[in-house]
Every structure is written in structure tokens, then in C-alpha cells.
């Protein structure tokens, strides 16, 4: 029945500032009104609604104020440099001390984090194929650690 994600929403303090930020990420403006804008994530498939109002001050929690954008593994490898070229600073995930992309073998995905001007948590994320011997690994691995482990088990990187 479910074909995919149609829309997600984030609160923002200033629509003009948000339009500039999300357009810089390459998203296309789809629709706007006085206090709401929508950007296509995948044109004609999914969009992101940004709502101007005081809700942007709601404290962050993973279930609130967070969006993950799907990217390829190769794009993820270049994401920190790409974001910095746009004057966007990646941020560490929770207890990690580094901003570099990392892999969660037990979940079969890899991520890098950054924030919009209102502190909404944004993430680039991709699926990774996990060698059977690593499917129970709960540690977060750097891409270098991940690639070395995959080579050890003759696994696939993607």
C-alpha cells in the first residue's frame, strides 16, 4: 500500500533565510504561501514543508525537527567537503567527536549530519550492504574502518 514518503515538515524562524539555505542544497522550490514553503526532495514524489513560526524554538529530539536525505555511498564520502564548499558546517552525531561520515553496520546505513539555520537536524544517509559477519556490530565505524572491515570479509561497499 505505501509507496514512499510524500512529505515531511520542519519549523523555521525565517522563510527567506530558509529558502536561501535549502535552495543552496539543490532543492527546488515547489510551492509557497505567506508562512509556508515546500521544496521538492524528489520532484513529483516527495517534498519538504517549512513552516514559519515560534515552533522552531522547540528543543531538538530525534523524533522532532529531523530529516534525513538519501544520497549514494559515493556522495556520502564527499559530503563533508561538499557542505563546506556551501559554507555549511557538518556537526558530530550525539557522542561522536568527529563530523566525518560513519556507518552503523547493525542498521545497514551510513550518515553525516548538519543543521539548517534554525538548528533543525539534517542528515545525508545511504544504505550499505553489510557482510553477514558484521550484522551484529553496534559500533559506529568511520568510512575507513568500514571499508577495511568489508575488504576483510570480502563484502560489498554498497
Summarize the structure in words:
There is one protein chain. The mean pLDDT is 94. With 158 residues, the protein is an alpha+beta fold. The radius of gyration is 17 Å and the shape is elongated. The longest helix is centred in the middle third of the chain and has 13 residues, at 73-85. It folds into two domains: 1-53, 2,3-Dihydroxybiphenyl 1,2-Dioxygenase, domain 1 (Roll), CATH 3.10.180; 60-158, 2-Layer Sandwich (Signal recognition particle alu RNA binding heterodimer, srp9/1). The strands form two sheets. Strands 5, 6, 7, 8, 9 and 10 form a six-stranded mixed beta sheet that branches. It has a four-stranded mixed beta sheet with strand order 1-4-3-2, with helices on one face. The chain is built from three helices and ten strands; from the N terminus they run βαββββαβββββα. It has helices at residues 15-24, 73-85, 143-152; strands spanning 7-12, 28-32, 36-42, 46-52, 66-70, 90-91, 102-104, 109-115, 121-127, 141-142.
